[in-house]
Amino acid sequence: MSKIRIYIEPTKITDYMEISNEDIIHKVKNILRLRTGERIFLFNGVGQEFVYEITAIRKESISVAAMGLAQSQDIPLPPITLGFPVLKEEKIDFILQKATELGVSSFIPFICERSITEAPSEKKYTRWQKIIVEAARQSQRLWSPELKETVDFETVLKTGCRLKFFGQQGEGNVKEIFRQDYGDIILLIGPEGDFSKEEVDQLQANSFKPVNLSVNTLRVETAAVFGIGLINYFLHYES
User: Fold this and answer.
1) pLDDT in tens, 28-72
2) DSSP H or E stretch at residue 22
3) How is the chain split into domains, by residue range?
4) What CATH number does the domain located at 80-236 have?
């Protein structure tokens, strides 16, 4: 049986806990069919995972007792930020899930000329955060990515990362970019129809380097996931 992992907010983790979250109770009782005496792992999304024993299962709560720290991890370096335009909801769901699995440190939704121009509601942000946490849980991550507030294009241009680049078909070799010294990284993906010429000029004026992700035209969500995968390859596998 694979390890059972559950996310608990860092401020709510104590040695003895009563878990009353309906989704967690349903998963433990009805999906996993766990019993008292069995172990579960609780991770807090900020680098720690603890092992707990189930001491009681009730209709409206589950009692657990801490057995110790299972593992911990310093924040992964270099941090990778993915900036994506506000899109249709199902596309963003895909980006958040897959980029979390691939190790993104933070997400910045932004509004530009060819994106949806209305900022997401608080309800959508809550849903997106759940997608991120679930992807972190499933992929065995100890750190859950930060989902930042939606910003306008001018604001995302000012993001203070040492290595900044954006997807642009036909331009830029990612291998050349990674030959330089780098620290924190940000990748911006354009909307359907790509960035406008004026936006491309602004990006380059703010030290963003164009990088060609494919000889073919990619959907926004495909470009985002492939771009993060490409970064991971150069960070971890390319000597």
Assistant:
1) 888 888 999 999 999 999 999 999 999 999 989 999 999 999 999
2) helix 22-26
3) 5-72, 80-236
4) 3.40.1280.10
CATH architecture of 5-72: Beta Barrel (2.40)
d(CA 209, CA 203): 8
Q: Which of 137, 149, 140, 143 is nearest to 23 (CA)?
A: 137
Q: In which residue are the tokens 């990619």 written?
A: 218
Give, in degrees to the nearest 5, the angle at Cα 27 between 21 and 32. Answer: 150
Q: Which amino acid is at 150?
A: T
pTM: predicted TM-score of the whole model, two decimal places:
0.90
CA 43 to chain CA centroid, nearest Å: 16
Give yes or no on whether 5-72 and 80-236 have one common fold.
no
Coil, strand or helix: which one is 81?
A: strand
In angstroms, the CA 65 to CA 109 distance is 39
Expressed in percent and rounded to 5, the helix, strand and coil fractions of the chain are 35, 25, 40
Q: What is the amino acid identity at position 24?
A: I
